[in-house]
Design a protein that fits this description.
Length: 613
């Protein structure tokens, strides 16, 4: 036990400081962000993972268990700065540690009900069966769980759950997870290709060539040959810009790269608005706040969630709580006006030592970004775009495979259909571990059975095409058109006001027309920076193109789904319609047009019923 405590104390200290010693050592000792063989085109990876969050690194670790395979992780940041580090509340899984009465079946039902019956129930069953095992796996990796007096990890109840099943480290669950995974990746000698912006997955017909990326440090175009690619690039919350809890890197790069090679964007309209983002800027205050007893109070001093969820109150599912808050604001019982209006989150009755032990980051974020000490004052919050239930279709949840041979998907950029129309708090970190592991195993098995069948000449041609694109875009005169920020800001206003928490037909149709116009303006927008070293202007240009395509897909899916379900709330169709819409939306991009198809929801045990909390 003493060894375990010493290890935990070490990792806890590193995590709290926001620095992993191993990470710092790696980048100092290496001195380069790209391995030399990659720069010279002298390597073909068996498994190339795009994205260094929880799903990406867990996939890389699973693939690297096959010692004969060469595995790499590509990231546009550095490995310990992914969006996964921002996850706060914990990871769900049935372990029997805190609550012996919890069961896998209960986890399955909570998830299906929380997802408003849009979940594929066979996938949820697989997920719930494996989630608890992954909690133990992270324990073995040295994850610094908050622990009980007997040394076992503690689990708390999150919104929509019937039992306490979220294991956690304070309110920094994702940060600790990423650092623990990264340490293991270094131990397994997995290559990291960092500060590289993926531009394209290169195909030769139905054969995978590899990935085209820009090295941000030099501006050079890099072609990385690979037998298999795992897309694990995270979400796309920046379509709502300041009204999101996502980092600036969450721009849907993987979604668009996948769509462009024929993988459909599944259930794009299912965007989750987390109830408690700081009203000033969208920064997230974790659901662990409400799990630990924080209350929602409107501008008239009323605790109002009893009107919307009489039994669960603040611990109802995120979609219900977010709509409750939005309704209070819309009906004049909020505080403030416009995009920054909100209601209060009240922690003042929670013992200070409990806040310090379990909500330290929430307190720090409130002080830093709202100037409020939650121990003594209420903090103003409002719904913020937080999570993407939709994503690239995972065609086989047992392998992580997409419908394109050799391309696998995992994490928030994928859609396993585990979360359905609304994700439960603390299911996301569990999902990235379960299906990251699955995708890594699936890609490794594929790579072992297949030789590299791509065309490296075509890969080089794709790099040359992007070099020409860079030169053309960055040399446009100032008179060419609107700037990237101008188009982005117009996109954000369209998305927040016409495709946000509440939606209706006329506004969605207007949004579609406005986005089409913005896509045309984007074709000749002004970028301005011609430099090669850290050309963030070009990077943001690429990201804006991705955000526009993602935004248009969200709107198209929202127009087609004429019902309200989970995170998708239509004022003009306020009821759920199981007769016509108990099915998944699939958006394809074909010849510049957005094409909508449908796929049936898989039901095993639980027939749809009215969802009450």
């Amino acid at each position: 036990m003493s060894t375990e405590i010493s290890r935990r104390t070490f990792i806890k200290g590193a995590t709290a400081a926001g620095v992993a010693l191993a990470a710092g050592t790696y980048f100092t000792w290496n001195g380069h962000n790209i391995p030399e063989p990659v720069k010279h085109g002298d390597v073909t990876y068996d498994v190339l993972v795009i994205g260094s969050g929880g799903a990406g690194m867990r996939a890389a670790l699973a693939a690297a268990e096959n010692k004969d395979l060469k595995v790499a992780v590509m990231t546009k940041l550095v490995p310990t700065r992914s969006a996964s580090t921002m996850a706060q509340g914990g990871m769900n899984g049935v372990t029997g540690v805190t609550d012996p009465q919890d069961t896998v079946e209960s986890h399955v039902f909570d998830t299906v009900k929380g997802g408003d019956y849009l979940c594929d129930q066979d996938a949820v069953e697989y997920f719930a069966e494996h989630a608890g095992k992954n909690i133990y796996e992270m324990d073995y990796m040295g994850y610094p769980y908050n622990r009980q007096e007997d040394g076992s990890f503690h689990q708390r109840k999150m919104g929509g759950s019937s039992h306490p099943r979220a294991a956690y480290f304070e309110d920094r669950a994702g940060h600790a997870m990423v650092h623990a995974l990264f340490e293991k990746c270094l131990e397994q000698n997995i290559d990291f290709i960092s500060e590289c912006q993926m531009l394209e997955i290169s195909m030769d017909g139905d054969k995978l060539n590899g990935v085209v990326a820009m090295d941000m440090r030099s501006g050079n175009l890099v072609g990385v040959a690979a037998k298999t690619v795992i897309i694990a690039t995270g979400g796309y919350g920046r379509v709502y810009w300041i009204r999101t809890s996502n980092p600036y890197s969450s721009t849907g790069d993987g979604i668009v790269a996948g769509m462009n090679i024929g993988i459909p964007f599944k259930d794009p309209e299912m965007v989750q608005f987390h109830p408690t983002g700081l009203a000033a800027n969208g920064v997230l205050l974790s659901e662990s706040s409400r799990a630990e007893g924080a209350l929602l109070i409107n501008g008239q001093g009323e605790r109002f969630m009893g009107k919307y969820a009489p039994e669960k109150l603040e611990l109802a599912t995120r979609d219900i709580v977010a709509r409750g808050i939005a309704t209070e604001i819309a009906e004049g019982r909020g505080v403030g006006e416009g995009i920054h209006a909100g209601v209060y989150l009240d922690f003042r009755h929670i013992p200070g030592e409990r806040i310090d032990e379990r909500l330290g980051q929430v307190r720090d974020l409130s002080r830093r970004f709202a100037g409020v000490d939650i121990k003594t004052e209420m903090v103003l919050i409002s719904p913020t775009c937080h999570y993407s239930m939709g994503g690239l279709e995972m065609a086989d949840f047992r392998t992580g495979a997409s419908r394109v041979p050799g391309v696998f998907v995992a994490g928030e950029c994928s859609c396993v259909s585990v979360h359905g129309a609304n994700r439960l708090g603390a299911n996301s970190l569990s999902e990235v571990l379960v299906f990251g592991h699955t995708a890594g195993d699936g890609a490794a098995a594929y790579a072992k059975d297949h030789a590299y069948e791509g065309n490296q000449e075509k890969l080089a041609q794709a790099c040359a095409k992007w070099q020409d694109k860079f030169n053309e875009v960055t040399n446009r005169p100032k008179s060419a058109g609107k700037t990237v920020p101008e188009i982005r800001d117009a996109m954000v206003n369209t998305m927040w006001y016409k495709a946000g928490v509440f939606r209706e037909e006329n506004q969605l149709q207007e949004a579609a027309m406005e986005l089409s116009a913005l896509e045309k303006e984007y074709e000749h927008c002004y970028v301005g920076d011609k430099s090669h070293v850290y050309n963030t202007a070009f990077e943001q240009y690429v990201e804006l193109g991705n955000l526009l395509q993602v935004s248009h897909s969200i709107v198209q899916g929202a127009i087609a789904r004429k019902e309200s379900r989970g995170g998708h709330s239509r004022r003009d169709y306020p009821k759920r319609d199981d007769v016509n819409f108990l099915k998944h939306t699939l958006i394809f991009k074909k010849d510049g047009q957005y094409v909508t198809e449908y796929k049936d929801v898989v039901i095993t045990k639980y027939q749809p019923q009215e969802r009450k909390y």
